[in-house]
Design a protein that fits this description.
By secondary structure, the chain is mostly beta strands. It contains four helices and 22 strands. The strands form four sheets. Strands 1, 2, 9, 10, 11, 12, 13, 14, 15 and 19 form a ten-stranded mixed beta sheet that branches. This is Stage IV sporulation protein B.
Amino acid sequence: MFLGFLLLLPAHSLAEKNDNALIPLGQSIGVQLKLEKPTFVHDVLINDKWWFKSGDQVISLNEKTIGSIADWKKLSKNVNEEQVSIEILRENKRKSVLVSTDKLESMLPFIRDHTEGIGTITYVDPKTKEYGALGHQIVDQQISQPPPFLGGTIFLSEIARIHKSTPGNPGYKIAKQAAVHVQAGNVKQNTVYGVFGELLESDMQQGDAIPTLTARNIKKGSAELFTAIDGNDVQAYDIEIIKVEETTFQFIVTDQELIKKTGGILQGMSGSPIIQNGKFAGAITHMVVDNPVKGAAIPIQEMMKKHP
């Protein structure tokens, strides 16, 4: 699972031009990334001298390439030897170790070939159909790093329940996939500025494109946060922008209905668009754990760069 959360600006404003207009979204999405190689997500003791470590990537089993959990299962069933050779990649170095055949199945629960979680889709470009989501990089919490991946998929999801935030205890959205195995888009990039790809689901592209703001044109004062906390019904909630910097801005939630239902900001709200005076200001990236009505956001034109 992954949390959501933060983050320059060109000297000249790119904003307030029609060719920078984006459609703000705010729906909850599930994200699934196919890992570059099957990866250990926990340390596993093999013998008195050897551990597989969290983050180790599996290259081969008995010199046969492993590209997925299915490959591991298939090859391990056809092993006749008492021991097999497993080759891994650890910190960009290849290592091989002999493992008892009877341990192959017991290691499976500690290996994954994908990572997944939920977040919020921020915008779609009406001309290119390219979307941006989350406003920050996906970091696999079990291996504590951005996962190398071959590709990915986003799915429309529905919020089934809310676990409220309280000071010191971040709340979260509990979601279910709205349409099983129906792809809403692909994932092409996972950067510090968010997840990006091409949106395929036309129902998510409804709405009018609005101009985008540079950080210097975002002002302290009232604004609106667009997000879904019930099903996938996107609603606008009042916030107050309290500080604007070059690469980020801070805000507090002032909408009493949202505070009553969620306690403020939730994990899974990352990427929720923020609109000020009818223009696209940015997207949520962080919450303050000890004060969940306070959060931080990335300016939308910073996010649109996709890379620092």
